[in-house]
Amino acid sequence: MKKIGVFLCNCFGEIGRTVDLESIRKRLASDPSVGFVALRESLCMPGDAAEVRATLRERGVGRVLLGACSPYGRMETVRLGLAKEGVDMRKVRGADLREGCAWIHGKNPAGATRKAANQLDMELARLQNGQDSMDIDIRVRSEALVIGAGPAGLAAACGLAGMGIPVHLVDRGSAPGGLLNVVTKVYPTEVSGPAKIKSLVEMTGSSPLIRFYGKTKVASVKGYAGDFKVALAGPEGNTSLRAGAVVLATGARLLFPRGLYGYGKMKNVITQMEMERQFAAGNVACGNAVFIQCVGARCAERPYCSTICCPLSLKNAMRILDEAPGSTVTILHRDIMTPGSTLEAYYRKALHRGVRFVRFDAQRPPEIRGNGLVSGVEVFDVLSGVTRSIEADLLVLSTPLVADPESAALARMLEIPVDRHGFIAEVYPVHPVETRNDGVFICGTARWPASSDQAIAQGEAAAVKAASFLGKETVPALTMSRVPGTKLGHAEANAEACTGCGNCVAVCPYRACKLQRVGQRSVSRVIKVRCKACGSCMSVCPNGAMQIPEQNYRVTGAMIRRAFREVR
Amino acid sequence: MSPVADTNILVFACRWCGLIGADGAGRRRTELPASFRVIPVECAGYVEPDAVIRAFASGAAGVAVLGCHVGGCRFNDANHPALKRLELLRTLLDTTGIGGDRLLLGFGTAHEHHQWADTIRDFHRHVEGLPSMESWMTSVAGDR
What we know:
The structure holds two protein chains of two kinds.
Chain A: E1 4-9, H1 21-29, E2 34-40, H2 48-59, E3 63-68, H3 75-84, E4 92-96, H4 98-102, H5 109-129, E5 137-139, E6 144-147, H6 151-162, E7 167-170, H7 193-196, H8 198-206, E8 210-213, E9 217-224, E10 227-234, E11 237-243, E12 245-248, E13 252-254, E14 269-271, H9 272-281, E15 288-292, H10 309-323, E16 328-333, H11 340-353, E17 356-359, E18 367-369, E19 376-381, E20 386-391, E21 394-397, E22 401-403, H12 405-413, E23 440-442, H13 452-470, E24 474-476, E25 492-493, H14 503-507, E26 513-518, E27 521-526, H15 536-540, E28 546-547, H16 553-562
Chain B: E1 9-14, H1 18-27, E2 36-41, H2 49-57, E3 62-68, H3 79-96, E4 103-108, H4 113-129, H5 134-143
Parallel strand pairs in B: 1-2, 1-3, 3-4
């Protein structure tokens, strides 16, 4: 085994002023596994990396221990410099002697020196006992499966095809478009739904790279990032295909307000979606229309705001005033949610246009009057403190988007979690279109209520994220991390030691551990592509069968033993 | 046998929150007791209960596991089951005579360097006030 070379950085006195580096040098030099210990003024200045490299060549050491600053400080520069010089960075470890020692124990030089010696010893243990994870390359199939052909799915499919990636676009409807097919005007530009996504639909039809599967459902998805095996159930029977990535754009549906405000019992109580259908059919009744916002939303069961209902109501209110002159529209709301400059201007436009707004309190919801048909609404106006009685010929309920049960079933198949409302959870707020399962991306209302503009933007984002992965022929499994270059390694299961208890399967936050039948028994197997090396499986394995080679039990054990070793 | 200084604290710091907090405290040159040693880990989920016990056997008078806030874990909430496991371990520490209050579970985010410093100082003070580990060490040595 090649010896270890140690470089101790003085940091122009920042470390040496507090820590007695000379005594540490002597101490380390006496370790049989250490080839040499070099004291340096700096490691991160120009030319330092080349000098270190030269010393390494000259001394013929295989592994390097750096006693310098914190990994978040200049150590990054040091590492980048050494990597540029061609040093194998897997064989380089650093101990934090500046931020973690000299700078916080400035008044206690003896204690700081003891601590520095211990911390160097501990990192030495890592070099002595650590191993390297296996290098595994994932072959990436440059094809994508996009589930759902609403605005988000279309944007994702067209984005991917635009980057030269073949796309299988699946939708349960016969034509692409999703909910926008029903909408004859989309806020705030007031173009029709189909017109808004015309270019995307046209591209879907004309691009040789996009294959559209209408009236088709996804029967099963198996496999991992780079190579998913997909079975589709369509009108022409089952199709199987393979894709490197999956974009989930299954959308949401609108809540059906059964039993609320006389819906279902009284004929003139309708939902906003039924209003859209009336507009499409061209029969807009003249009269007094009353809209109620937040029907079944922002309540205990569904505490979220559905994003689209306020602007949608503003649009429909103005449309009634335009198409049926002589009508009045009153919007009963709890808050008008119109974020952004465009929608706020839209709200002001509605105010000027003569739409009336009455704010009510969730504790005192509006009450409807009438037999068989709604004739009026009683509402307590919280802003003026009086109860208002409003004549109504038409009552329109604004209901929120709710998760589609089919998306939840797909999420289960793809091993990604859903939140308590059934929407698909993103992996982390800073990775909005990625999921726990690498290679599976989400966009549109399947992840959270969104306007069509937002859904299209998310679809494009998902396309770019998927393309950055699909654009490569092979991807090293060691780079499969949200933050590139930060994956420590991947866990490995020792089939000899494994008893198949399944603890690792239960605890793995990435569903990377699977039990596999081998002869008479079950043994755990790690899917290296999914593993992010958090070490959860290691800590629950009763047999030590799960190990991350870089930080295996020997490393941890040795580090613990050396943590408080006496320093002479 | 390692000497038992009564304030030896072994810190398992996750490198996405705890360790960055330590770095922040270092940059601000926050003076801290020099009795603690840090083992950087990927995630608090990595810390096996066994490692905590071994730390006490190797001369630690206190063990701190510092991870991200629950809900803010970089590894899909791997720190949450870890927290539960280590809470169970506390009972075992009480039973074996080490004392559950020698184990500290701390949660913070990367920028909370002041919280990191306070955690270390407070825990140091707390461990300082506890009875010596010597008697426990000798009883363990006797068992061997």
